[in-house]
Amino acid sequence: xxxxxxxxVRLRQRSLVRAVLLTLxxxxxxxxxxxxxxxxxxxxxxxxxxxxxxxxxxxxxTARCLHRRWSLYxxxxxxxxxxxxxxxxxxxxxxxxx
Length: 98
Fold this sequence. Notes:
Blueprint: H1 2-9, H2 16-33, H3 48-64, H4 72-96
Helix pairs in contact: 2-3, 2-4, 3-4
């Protein structure tokens, strides 16, 4: 258990778990900063740019996990890259929403 947690902290090693946690955490934080539970009062926040940078970092971490040869693992990482792109798009929409 401790070894698995250490792999999340080591930034030089590739980790899909770290990438997913970064992007999903940034998305949830962006939703909360925009005032999501109250849909009629959505607003942009300057702090959402930090969420955008963290989500971009998570997408870069996901891209680092791609293998050179195609396999089912490669296909799964590509799907995660597409979801990261959708999260980035949603954060940009929430930043621009006023």
